[in-house]
Every structure is written in C-alpha cells, then in structure tokens.
Amino acid sequence: LFENRAPLLRQFPLAAMVLTAELKGCIRLKEGSKVQVHGLKNRDELNGTIGRCLQFDAEKLRWGVELPGGQKILLKMANLLPVDADVEPATAGPTGAPMPASAAAAAATESVGTKAAEADATLSAAADAGGSQHITGRGTSPVPLEETTSEPPDIGTNTGATPMAEQNAQEMQDLPELKPAAVDKSGRWWQNESASAKFADQLRANEPTLKSLCLVPPKRFAEEDVERICDALEVNTCCCELLASGHALSEAGCKRLAQMLRVNRTLQMLSVGNSSLADRACFLFEGLSENQGLTSLDLEHKGMTSEACLALANALCQRAQLGAADLTTLRLSRNPGLKAALSQLASAPAPKQLLLADSGLGEDQAGDIGRWVARGVEDLDLRENSSLGGDGLDAMLKALLPKTCEQPPLLQRLRLDGCAVGDDGLEALATACDRGLELEELFLERCEATVVGCRILAPKLRRRRLRLLSVRGNLIGDEGCELLADCAERLDLSAVNLSPQVLPVLGEQPAVISLELFNNPQLGGQAPATWCSELRCEHWQQLEQLDMSACSLGSDGFRLLCCTLLEKPRLMPRLQGLCLGGNEVEDTDELNDLSEKLATARGLRVIWRNT
Known about the structure:
The protein is α/β, with parallel strands linked by helices. The chain contains 20 helices and 24 strands. The strands form three sheets. Strands 10-11-12-13-14-15-16-17-18-19-20-21-22-23-24 form a 15-stranded parallel sheet. Helix 14 (422-434) links the parallel strand 17 (413-415) and strand 18.
C-alpha cells in the first residue's frame, strides 16, 4: 500500500499532516462527550450546533451524535470539535504513529511487526475518514492535538502542519519511512485489502472455531475473493455458514460457488449476491442441485427473474432425489420473478420456514402458496403483499386445507402484516380454524381489520389460545381489544385506538404475560390520574412485559405509574420489563431517581428516556 507514498499523500493531505506534525496531546472522545458540529457542506445549517456523542461506528468510521431536539446523525470525526473532552498527554509511538502517553509503556512490549501494522492502519483510517484524527477503538477514539508554532486556537484545528499545496517533491521524500514488509495482512477493509485471505488460511487449517464466515459489506467479496474462499471451503470440514450478501456476483463467481457446493458437505447456511444477481442465479443453482448439506438459503432481494426461480424449483427437486434433507429456511422475499414460478415451486420440497414478503403476490398466486405450504411449511411470512386481500387469503387457506385433508397442516406461524386482508380475511381465518388450522402465532398488523372481523375470529381463537397475537395498526377500538384479550399469551394492541376503560378487562386475563400498548394516546394526558388509581392488585398476576411507549403519558403520567408500582408491590408481581419511551418525559434528577428506585425495588428493567 505504501510503496508509492507520494500520490497517496497528495490525494489525502490531511493524512500527511498526521505523519509530519508534532504531537502535543490526545483528545479522548467517549460516549456522552460534548462536541460542536463544523465543516458540513450539505447540511451547513447544523454547523455550530452543540451535541453529544452516542457511539462510534467502527465500520463507517463515524460518531453517532445526538443534536438538540433528539435528532441523531452520523458524522466524520473531522466534522466534530470537542467541547468538554479530556486532553491526555501524548507521544509518538515507535513507528511515528500518535498514541496516548499512558499507552506507551504497554505498547513497548508489543512486537515491532504489530506496531508497524497499527501505524499503517492509523494512516489508512485517517485517509479514509478524510480527517487527521487518530482512530484507535470503538468506544473511545483519541484525536491528536498537533503542536503549532504559536498558541493553539480552538481545539480541533490543524495549524501545525504546512498545507500540501505548499510542499514540494523534496518535502514529500522527507516523510517518515514506511516499510510495506511490516504491514500485517490481516484483512482490514479500510486498507483496501480483503478479509478473505486471512479467512482462507483459517479454513484451510480447518480451525474448529471458525463456524461462520461473514463477508458482508464493507468487507470485500470480489471475484478473486470468491475464488480464494471457495478453494478453502472445498477442503474445510468445520465451517457451517457463508454470509456474503450485498456483493455483485459475476457469471464466473456464480459458477465457482456452484463448483464449491458440489464438493462441500459441511456448509449449512448460504447467503450471497445482491439485487443484481438476476438470471446469474441459474448458474449457482446448478451447484445447489448436487449439494446435500445446505439447510438454509437466503435469496432475499436478489432481483431473481422467473427463469431463475424456475431453476431454483428444479434444483430443490433434484437435491431431494439425491436424498438431501429439506431446507429448514428459504428466504425469497422481494424477488419480482417469484410470481411466474410459484406453480413450479409449489411442487418442490417445502422448507419449514418460508419467507415470501413484498413480492407482489396476489389472489392469482394464492392457491400455489397454499399447496406449497401444505407440503410442510411451519412458518410462513407473507408481509407487504398488499394485493393478496381477503379473497386471496381465503383461496390460500382453501388450498392449504382441502376437503379431503386427513391431517391438520403443520403451519404454526403466519405473518400477514400489510396484506390488506380486512374483515373478509379474518372470516377466512375463522373458517380455517374450524377446518383444522392450529396456529401458535398470528400477525395481522396493518391489515385494515375492524371490530367486525374481531367478532368473527375471536371465538375461534379462544378454543386454542395463541402464543402470540398482533393486531397492531388496526383501528379495532375498545370492543375489539376486549374480544381479543383472552386469545393469546402475548398481545400486541399497539396503535389500535384503545382507551383506559379497556385496561381492567386486559388485567383480568390470567394468561397474558406480555402486553404491548404502544402509541395509544388516549392512555395519556389527564387519563393516568384515573386509571393508575384503578389498577387492582389481583389483576395482572402473570404479566412479565409491559410496553406503553408513545402513549402521551408526559412527566406526570410517568411519575404516577412509577409511584403506583412502588406503592403496590403486589401489583404486577412478575413484571420484568417496563417500556415507557417516547412519552415526552422530562429528563430530571427527580424522575431519574424515581425510575432507578423502581428498578431496584422491583428488580425490573425500566426503559423511558427518548434515546
């Protein structure tokens, strides 16, 4: 990387400043440090704003910063001026890299090769971030404060190094010597290197600890990396997962992966490619057809065409003929070609978990979906297929439960969020329950259901209480909530327009262990003064989790609820988690002390700050 330093340092002048400036001290940023935003061009209105650091993102080389009003943004360190950070004495490390003086003694015990690698990584990170600050960790990132020829101005300015525009070729030659031989080829993505080299060595050595291989962006998975990893996987017998989604794959890359799948017998999970995969997936599936080890296949958002989906159907059938076990998980969400190939896929072996979300599926495909699910699907995700509707759901359930059905289907978990099934869909579900459908979890979020559908479905669900029921985002009101109150152990009644009058009915349910009431503003305002005093200790005996976020409680409502739980230790005795975020509660010492007192006294976790 550093064989030709001059062009690199011309491109990144601030990196050259790090190498040439003398060090005065290190500013140590940490979570909670106050900083001033400066130097933004596209969002110049934020310049001068004072915020506080949240967490450092080591992959993006950015600090999360919360601004006044709760806005959160990611910023380069070059765009931050520390306001109250501690300055620690600093010195130059053995390789010239800046480091805190307190770390110098520990660094002295390290090998020369390791020190040189750290110095090289420092330069590359600074060049990539476009700033001269020194990056050495995730939670606390020291920033060098350079020596100046006069008294230093505000913290964070760089006046000690001569601008690159004024340097000549001789000055470039006088920069500290960097020896490429000392660089540790460890796969740091910011060094424009590939993590695959190190992983490939571990795979060839059959290291038993390397069970999952993760090469998602920003790590590289170019064609040479595909070749290197596939070569290693062909001799490895320990690694179970290859996760490399988000990278474009060429035809050659797909063919190389297919060749590896024909040989490898231990890989169980495969996730590769991005939305440009399209027809090239056909080459990949040629290897899948001869593979007997995979049990989980992630093909979400791969731009797969109908031809690719047909090739997948054929591959699943061929591997079944070889005696391969059926997939446990098949993710096909957000693929436009899925619709045209569903009839063929319905004839293929069914996975236990099938994800078909946001694929434009409608009533025309409903029968094929039902027939495929009938082959053994236990977990079906149809979210965001808004063209399905009530008639489509009815057609799917009829195909799943034909009149000649001798055994109930294996389907236990069904997600219909955003499928616009409405009350007709709830009626179809009720009919399916009469015909043998035995669900454990049912998601009906944003399905345009009303209290009419609740009246039809609730009596059927009570016969065999669900483990989880979510009707979030349906305006079913108090009556709908009362009807569904005893239909599941875990209830999500968020954003359903319920009022405090329904709380006693919910509290009476002995089986409810989790209750989500997010975004029901009628519970806030002046209402807590009434319903808090009416909470009865003989109710809520099994409740473990309660979410009343964004219910407009305000500081008064928050205080009332916390005090009620403190004063009545027999109320909700099993409560483990209380979420009250987004309620416009003031962050005062009084309320901080109150929440901590409640958490300590009841042994529960209280979440309430807007952050």
